[in-house]
Amino acid sequence: MDLFHFSLQLPVTDPTWIFLLVLLIILFAPILLTKLRIPHIIGMILAGLVIGEHGFNILARDSSFELFGKVGVYYIMFLAGLEMNMSDFKKNRGKAVMLGLLAFVIPIGIGLVTNMLLLKYTLLTSVLLASMYASHTLVAYPIVIRYGISRQRSVSIAVGGTAVTDTLTLLVLAVISGLFRGEGGGWFWLWLVLKVVVLGVGIMYLFPRIARWFFRRYDDNVMQFIFVLALVFLGAGLMEFIGMEGILGAFLVGLVLNRLIPHVSPLMGHLEFVGNALFIPYFLIGVGMLIDVHVIFGGGDALKVAAVMIVVALTGKWIASWLTQKIYRMSVLERELMFGLSNAQAAATLAAVLVGYNLIQPNGERLLNEDVLNGTVLLILVTCVVSSFTTERAARKIAMGEAHPEEEDPSRLPEKILIPVANPATIDYLMSLSLLIRDPKQKNNLVALNVINDHSDSDRLEQQGKRYLERAAKTAAAAGLSLRCISRYDLNIAAGIIHTAREYDVTDVIIGLHYKVNLVDSYFGKLTESLLKGLHREVMVARFLIPLNTLRRIIVAVPPKAEYEAGFQKWVEHFCRMGASLNCRVHFFANEQTTALLQALVKKKYTGTMTEFSRLDSWDDLLLLTGQVNYDHLLVVVTARRGSISYDSAFEKLPGQLGKYFTNNSVIVLYPDQIGEPQDAISFANPQGNNESQHYEQVGRWFYKWFKKEEN
Predict the structure, then answer these.
(1) Which of 80, 100, 300, 345 has its CA 20 to 30 A from that of 433?
(2) pLDDT class for 178, splitting at 50, 70, 90?
(3) Which residues, including other chains, have CB under 8 Å from residue 682's CB and lie 6 or more apart?
């Protein structure tokens, strides 16, 4: 009996061993090539070359590589649209269009001349081949993600230019294909463009609304992930249905879902993880398996064709990047990054050459012959190598430049956000809020706390608290962050929060509010009052009725003299950071003096956030905001503790106003940092720290208005 029957046949055909070999390549190629200082992307392509039929013939490029390869290229384009900083892209869309047009016109112009004069091809063949030089794929984009610079201006320009260039290239490909199918009538161009425009508008209008509806009703991470993938392939499939390539549809879906999937959300972490761990490497290995280095030493004009294609493609992209840099006075490093991202040939180039290879001319010859096919594969290898090395070099320099800490206030403590978890209905919202407002440059700045009362039921409460902390930790881990979990016994929840905040140098506290709890009781209950008396750090009391990623606007009501509080700049930074992450507008309502300071601060530090400013002269006019706040808006009310500079007696009416007029809105009530000791240490005679002068000020204002009225 043969207990160990094993026969080795190459190429390997068993699905188990195929998948194992691919996983081993994905695992060990980066480890090996990191020591050689070779980009991971090149490692995947070279590994595909070695194991492919033109290498050691270990694996055949079967249907699994075609399937996962197509998913991978869709993923690259989808992530490119999803990662794009839309506010920055809107400001730089002119530059992106310019780069896209230059990257299309210059290579196709140079290529048309060289193809006809040097390679002696026909006009139609020369046009199709030249369009291949113009197209490019964002193969090096994972490098940008890895270095955390995907929101750089030059990256947005390069990604936007890719959309313009590939769209024009795919239009040329569709027209040439239509000519060979007898569809090249006078209306063909118009009909094709019309179909693309109609489908693009349909995706931009319908997909965000469908996604927002889905995200509001289903918060399961797996369901959201599958739903997003379904939209990606629906967009790609519809684009192929009208005669274009699916990569254009995948990129467009990424753009329209950009504001619904925040960069720091668990869903984004899942999408990036699956793509970078499996689909994108599978695609790169499949590209490497197409490469046949033997054609360089074989007969025919393969080497000459490949040399011309490589020189023209690289030269055309470099000239386009150089002109864009000179026209808009950008830095040399930005030019290098644009060139690195825009010169890799892969997806659209493969699509064009395969279409041309399968088109048979009336004389029986292929539109693109074997030399062009082999030269294209070599073009893909060389341009991917150049693209990866160039992008890696530029991205590293930019990341190192951003890593230098700016001069900050030396008295400002390192950020540390405390999230008490006691209500399972609010854990996800509180964690999402903390992920959006945290400083991404600081590590380990999130702390979750569960406080247990010391009584007979403490064992059950301890187990329950551990489950809450585990749930919070999973949310943070899904976003690629670590969360410090603390469980402690104390007299009550407020005491536990205060003691933990002091022990761990907490700078911000976020507490939740279940939407079914009465607002008046919540804001002036024991927990909030005790926290405000015992802590002088920033405290947010939050209630969300819809998922944070579906918010469309943040409305911030700012009281007079808020700029004099110690935490003024910090809370402005928090909500500007939140608006930038959600890609939604932050609308400040304040009096004239405070508005001027807000505008100056935003212009100086937070230009990437879309902002708007309106007048709110008196805090008594807060009810005017009822006409400004919609269901999908977040209302942020900046208030103050008793005895602070910006405290106003009108704050006493705030709970009733919120409970009566803003019950259908997501709300955050914010108490900023305050200079000095907590208010329970202000006076032994007045432990609540009440500032009665506020009432005298109110009477004084009434007399002032009365005398002004008499004078008029």
Answers:
(1) 80
(2) low
(3) 643, 689
Query: Rounded to two decimals, what is the model's pTM?
Result: 0.72
Q: Output the pLDDT for position 694.
A: 45
Indicate if the pLDDT at residue 587 is higher than 60.
Answer: yes
Nearest to 475 by CA among 124, 219, 173: 219
Question: How far does CA 636 lie from the centroid of its chain?
Answer: 24
Q: Which residues of 469-505 are buried (b: 16+ CB within 10 A; e: fewer)?
A: beebbebbebbebebbbbbeebeebbbbbbbbbeeee
C-alpha pair distances (Å), 305 with each of 114, 124, 149, 384, 475:
10, 17, 36, 18, 53
Domains of the chain, start order:
15-400 (1.20.1530.20), 414-512 (3.40.50.620), 546-712 (3.40.50.620)
Q: Mark out the alpha helices in 120-152 (DSSP H runs).
A: 123-134, 141-147
Tokens of 505: 């140098």
What is the greatest pairwise CA distance in the chain? 114
Give the separation between CA 280 and CA 502, rounded to whole angstroms.
46
Q: Please give the backbone phi and psi of residue 531, each rounded to the nearest 5 degrees, phi first.
A: -65, -45
pLDDT digits (tens, 9 = 90+) for 687-712: 334 444 444 445 445 444 544 555 55
What is the C-alpha to C-alpha distance for residues 547 and 666, in angstroms, rounded to an integer? Answer: 10
Query: Of the candidates 671, 557, 573, 682, which has an alpha carbon nearest to the alpha carbon of residue 621?
Result: 557
| Distance (Å, whole) CA 675 – CA 669 | 19
- How do strand 538-543 and strand 484-490 relate by DSSP bridges? unpaired
Question: Of 48, 132, 106, 171, which Cα lies nearest the Cα of 379?
Answer: 132
Q: Are 589 and 558 in contact (CB under 8 A)?
A: yes
Distance CA 473, CA 485 (A): 7
